[in-house]
Design a protein that fits this description.
The complex is a heterodimer of chains A (about 290) and B (about 280). Chain A is built from ten helices and ten strands. Helices cover about 40% and strands about 20% of the residues of chain A. Chain A has a single domain, classed as P-loop containing nucleotide triphosphate hydrolases (Rossmann fold, 3-Layer(aba) Sandwich). In chain A, the strands form two sheets. Chain A has a six-stranded mixed sheet, with helices on both faces. Chain A is α/β, with parallel strands linked by helices and about 290 residues long. Chain B contains eleven helices and no strands. In chain B, helix 2 runs parallel beside helix 5 and helix 3 runs antiparallel to helix 7. Classes of the chains: A alpha/beta (about 290), B mainly alpha (about 280). The structure holds adenosine-5'-triphosphate and magnesium ion. The site of adenosine-5'-triphosphate has 12 residues of chain A, from strand 2 and helix 1. The site of magnesium ion (MG) has 4 residues of chain A, from helix 1.
Chain lengths: ~290, ~280
Amino acid sequence: MTYAIEIESVTKDFPLPVRGRKLRAVDSLSLQVESNVIYGLLGPNGSGKSTTIKLLLGLLKTTEGRCLINGKSVYEPSIRNEVGYLPEAPYYYRFLTGIELVVYFARLQGIKKREALAQAENLLFRVGLEDAKDNRIGTYSKGMLQRVGLAQALVGDPSLLILDEPIAGVDPIGAVDIASLIRELKEQGKTILLCSHLLSQVEALCDRVAILESGRLLAEGPLDKLLVSEEEKTLSIKNLDTEDRERMVKTAISLGGQVSVSRISLETLYLQLIGEKQRKAKLEREDSDQ
Amino acid sequence: MKWSAARAGLIAGNTFREAIRMKLFLLMLILATAAFASSFLFKEFNFGSSELKFIADFGFGGMTLFGPILAIIVSAQLFIGEIEHRTALTILAKPLYRSEYVIGKFVGSWLITMCFIALLSICLIIALWIRESSIIQADSEAFTTGRIINWIQVCAFALVQVLKLSMLCSLVALFSSYATSTIFAMSMGFLVWIAAQLQYIASDAWSAGSNWLYTVLFAFASLVLPNFHLFEIGDYLALGETIKLVAYLKLALYAIVYTAFYLSLAVVAFNRREF
Ligand SMILES: Nc1ncnc2c1ncn2[C@@H]1O[C@H](COP(=O)(O)OP(=O)(O)OP(=O)(O)O)[C@@H](O)[C@H]1O
Ligand SMILES: [Mg+2]
């Protein structure tokens, strides 16, 4: 089976201004993203999320390892027919109107002029920019830029969408709209890789997440598994052995009760994982200072 | 996926559109037309036919000065400006070859300078024609041989400038391909413009070289840099000399070879670039 995205022990170093020193932004990272899932990439600022995404688009070159999209090397330009990309904090030609921009990108993908215009109208409507589509992008607000970026990523109906913070800067209602747009895309059979700091949104949206820290993979898996709280699981069967527990469950059900394994929130998990790391690092730093 | 001239053309077209909507181009145009208009202020003097030569010199001078300035500013702004604003991220994530992007950017900015030179030439021809007509009316004896202004020569001059600017635009494209700021690419552009203007000194020194180190150095400088001096045909034209077609073809070949050389280097640099 070919994965939509495959990252095989990828390392990315950036040279630092200090000679000979390097900054390791991604550290032997391996990930597989199956098709038709919504995959979340999480982690604190500077943990290498955007770098990973740029490696996937061939905008950066891996120091070690390799990235594949639909089983093909990311340095082959033709694979990008199947990929839509929204960069973080996107910025586009100030002098173009929203519709001109989307038409331009559509035509770059070989779509004929008339078809490109129809697609652009449709996409701008879908991202809620139909009123502003004839305004210059220079006048757009942050959230509007984000929306036009999303429209641009959807041009040509790609099967894989790579969205770097798609909801950042968008108002709450807009965020809900974009989330439902992403869900809709999944229903159409597309694969979506996104990163975001808005954990409640991610939790509601993603099927699977990876949490990065300093370029390393901290945790990875389907949300259902990651968020099952060990603590609360034992709590619910306190003082009962397995048999009793089963009987208990059966009884509960027969009594009309509902039994479910309780989950912690993604935010809790994230704070547990990252917070612990950062606390440790801080302590170590304090120790070495003394 | 095949290399597509259509995609490069789209990028060039968009670059052109950006430049048109940039106030800068308008400013240059106003400056240039103001320069021409001011040549009419000399109306009070009546130099006869030498006045026409003055206007022609003035116009040629304007093209030689403003052409390269516009070429450097526009190429740098349109190429690396896009990288600085990170617009290039989105474009390069589309299915296209980076060489298409480089060529598109070069063609777009070259087209802009071409339009600018064309507009200046039209202004110059009109200015000359109007002045000539009024001088003929005032003093018909001076023009017994008919009109002395040859608009074909003005066009030839303009064409040669366009050839020269293609080398400059491709040089700035090369700098933009690895520079990290607009200001760097622009300064390099201006430096190289001056160097190319003085290149003949280096190549003279090469042929007269005594010290081997200087010989190598000057040989390198005179091969890597084009000699812009070759493209200054204004003096010949103003003296009424005719230039043979072969000489024009040689200039064209010269410009094409250098442009192709710089663009290949730009493509290599851009292919290796990270964003
Ligand atoms: N072009 C570059 N040159 C040098 N260092 C870079 C470059 N791009 C990123 N880095 C470094 O790599 C690390 C990872 O950056 P990255 O942008 O991937 O973080 P991120 O996870 O996207 O963070 P954020 O949540 O703030 O967007 C950072 O330490 C950053 O300074
Ligand atoms: Mg980021």
